[in-house]
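Project outcomes to date are best conveyed with an example. Our students and postdoctoral researchers have been running inverse folding experiments weekly, and each run begins with a structure described purely in tokens. The record below, which covers 207 residues, was selected by the lab manager from last quarter's runs and is presented without edits.
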């Protein structure tokens, strides 16, 4: 995001709606932006899935993960926490050979280990993650240049999860989770997904 010029904070889609410019021209990214990104996500299983996928995304683009999400769900039993926690070394070897997902042994092992931590957490993963949600910003961000990579809250969430035994949960990864799971709303001012107090903006598609 930081490399985008100021004028590219929003971009027009084929429907002429203004969206955060990171969407680009990809139809699946547009759908994800409109229907998922920034909407509050609750429930231990969906948040565990998000935690795992954000971990797999580290070092990669999110669209790479998004396009492979159906394969990830098939490989990890729809991210059912108990079933993932029960996976063993044979499953790791099988998944390392599965070209439909990201074949990173450390991340695969972390997903299984994180399921075991979640299973034995003794509290709701939802409550734990959402306890680090920051207060709502007094003013919506005007530019993608203003969107942070990490925050004090994402750093604190990362530290707490690491303390509990989670892996691949660095502060940047946790801020991405906060964005995607709606703990923060980083749709910029001119984006049509901005709150209702901001009017829907249609942008003229370049000729």
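After processing, the design step wrote out the following sequence:
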């Amino acid at each position: 995001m930081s490399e985008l010029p100021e004028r590219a904070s929003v971009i027009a889609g084929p429907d002429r709606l203004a969206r955060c410019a990171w969407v680009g021209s990809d139809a699946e990214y547009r759908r994800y932006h409109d229907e998922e990104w920034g909407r509050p996500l609750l429930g231990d299983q969906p948040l565990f899935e998000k935690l795992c996928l954000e971990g797999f995304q580290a070092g990669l683009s999110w669209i790479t993960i998004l396009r492979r999400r159906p394969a990830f769900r098939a490989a990890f039993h729809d991210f059912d926490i108990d079933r993932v926690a029960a996976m063993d070394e044979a499953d790791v070897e099988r998944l390392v050979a599965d070209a439909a997902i990201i074949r990173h042994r450390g991340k695969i092992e972390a997903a299984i280990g994180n399921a075991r931590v979640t299973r034995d957490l003794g509290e709701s993963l939802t409550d734990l993650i959402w306890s680090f949600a920051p207060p709502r910003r007094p003013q919506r961000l005007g530019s993608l240049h203003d969107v942070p990579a990490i925050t004090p809250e994402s750093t604190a969430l990362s530290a707490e999860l690491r303390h509990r035994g989670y892996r691949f949960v660095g502060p940047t990864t946790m801020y991405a989770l906060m964005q995607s799971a709606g703990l923060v709303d980083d749709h910029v001012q001119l984006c049509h997904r901005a709150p209702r107090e901001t009017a829907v903006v249609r942008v003229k598609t370049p000729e």
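Residues 72 and 101 are 6 Å apart (CA to CA). Strands lie at 10-12, 18-20. The training component of this project remains on track.
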